[in-house]
C-alpha cells in the first residue's frame, strides 16, 4: 500500500539535471540517485523499489513522494510472468503456509505430518524427524500443490507448460498465501497478546517461564474465542480470494479465466482447513 511515485510528470520534463538517476550521485552519503538503478520518475510498480526514500531526498523540486494508497492499486503495472527467484520463493512459502494453517487444527496437523513421521520411522531416522518434516513442508508438499495447480492451468490452455503456469500463478497466488498467513497471524496474535503485560513486568521472561512451568502462574487466555478467530479468518480468506482473482485479471488479461479453477481449488482448501479450526475440531 506504500508507494514511491512522482507527484506529476511536469517537473520531471523540466528537470535538467535528473539527479534521481545521475551516476555521480550514486555514492553520496545521503540523498543518492536510485540505488536500485530504477528511473524514479517512471515508477509504475512496486516490485523493485526498496522504498529507501533516496529519490525523495535528492529530487530538487520535491516532486517525488511516499504515498499511502488503497491495497493492490489498479494503476500499477502487473507482470504476467514472475521471475524464477520470485516463483520459487512463492512455491517454498506455500508449503510453510499450508503447514501453519494445519497446525491450528489437530486432525489436519496429524494428517499433514503423517507421511514425514512414517518416513522417519521407516528409515529408522527418528533423530532426523525434524529435518524430514522440513523437507516435506518446504519441498515435497509445495511441489505436489504446484504440479496440481499448474496442470490445471496447462489443461485449460492458460500456459504452454508447467513452468510457464507456475510463473503466471506465482504473484497472484502470493496474495492468497499472504492472506492465509494473515489468518494464522490472527490466531497467534489473539492467543499471545495476553502475555504482553507479563513481558512488560518481566522482560527477561525467566521468572515468568518458571512460574508457568511450576503452574503457579495461569497462562493468559486468548482474547477471542476460536469461533470468532475462525469466522474472521474465513472472511479474510474470501477477501484474499477476491484480490487473487483480481490480480490474475489485471496480470493475465483476457486469459485470466483459465487460472480461476486452480485459484478456487486452493482457496476452497484453505477455507476448509480454517473452517476446521473451530467447527470440525
Ligand atoms: S524525479 Fe525529481 S530529480 Fe528525478 S527527474 Fe523528476 S524532478 Fe528531476
Ligand atoms: S525509493 Fe529508493 S529504490 Fe525506490 S525509486 Fe526511490 S531511490 Fe529507488
- Unreliable runs: none
Strand order of the biggest β-sheet = 1-2
How much of the sequence is in beta strands?
A: under 5%
Task: Measure the end-to-end span.
Answer: 36 Å
Structural class: mainly alpha
- Summarize model confidence as the mean pLDDT: 96
User: What does the radius of gyration come to?
Assistant: 24 Å
Largest sheet: 2 strands, antiparallel
Query: What share of the residues lie within helices?
Result: 55-70%
Word description of this protein:
Helix content is 59%, strand content 4%. It has 281 residues and is mainly alpha-helical. The chain has 2 domains: 2-68; 84-279, no CATH class. The protein has a two-stranded antiparallel ribbon. Helix 3 packs across helix 6 (162-192). The two termini are 36 Å apart. The model has no long low-confidence stretch (mean pLDDT 96). The site of one iron/sulfur cluster has 13 residues, from helix 1.
Amino acid at each position: 500500500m506504500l508507494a514511491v511515485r512522482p507527484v506529476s510528470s511536469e517537473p520531471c520534463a523540466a528537470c535538467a539535471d535528473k539527479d534521481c538517476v545521475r551516476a555521480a550521485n550514486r555514492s553520496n552519503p545521503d540523498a543518492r540517485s536510485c540505488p536500485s538503478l530504477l528511473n524514479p520518475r517512471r515508477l509504475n510498480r512496486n516490485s523493485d523499489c526498496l522504498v529507501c526514500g533516496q529519490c525523495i531526498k535528492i529530487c530538487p523540486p520535491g516532486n517525488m513522494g511516499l504515498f499511502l494508497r488503497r491495497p493492490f492499486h489498479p494503476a500499477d503495472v502487473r507482470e504476467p510472468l514472475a521471475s524464477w527467484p520470485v516463483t520459487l520463493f512463492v512455491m517454498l512459502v506455500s508449503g510453510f503456509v499450508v503447514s501453519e494453517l494445519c497446525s491450528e487444527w489437530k486432525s489436519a496437523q496429524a494428517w499433514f505430518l503423517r507421511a514425514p513421521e512414517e518416513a522417519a520411522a521407516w528409515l529408522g531416522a527418528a533423530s532426523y524427524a525434524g529435518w524430514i518434516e522440513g523437507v516435506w513442508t518446504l519441498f515435497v508438499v509445495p511441489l505436489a500443490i504446484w504440479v496440481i495447480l499448474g496442470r490445471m492451468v496447462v489443461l485449460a490452455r492458460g500456459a504452454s507448460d508447467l513452468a510457464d503456469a507456475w510463473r503466471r500463478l506465482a504473484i497472484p497466488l502470493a496474495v492468497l498465501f499472504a492472506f492465509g498467513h494473515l489468518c494464522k497471524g490472527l490466531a497467534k496474535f489473539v492467543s499471545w497478546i495476553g502475555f504482553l503485560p507479563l513481558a512488560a513486568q518481566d522482560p527477561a521472561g525467566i521468572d515468568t517461564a518458571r512460574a508457568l512451568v511450576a503452574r503457579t502462574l495461569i497462562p493468559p487466555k486468548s482474547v477471542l474465542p476460536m469461533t470468532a478467530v475462525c469466522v474472521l479468518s474465513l472472511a479474510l480468506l474470501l477477501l484474499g480470494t477476491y484480490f487473487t482473482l483480481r490480480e490474475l485479471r489485471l496480470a493475465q488479461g483476457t486469459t485470466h479465466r483459465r487460472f480461476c479453477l486452480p485459484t478456487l481449488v486452493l482457496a476452497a482448501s484453505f477455507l476448509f482447513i480454517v473452517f476446521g479450526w473451530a467447527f470440525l475440531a
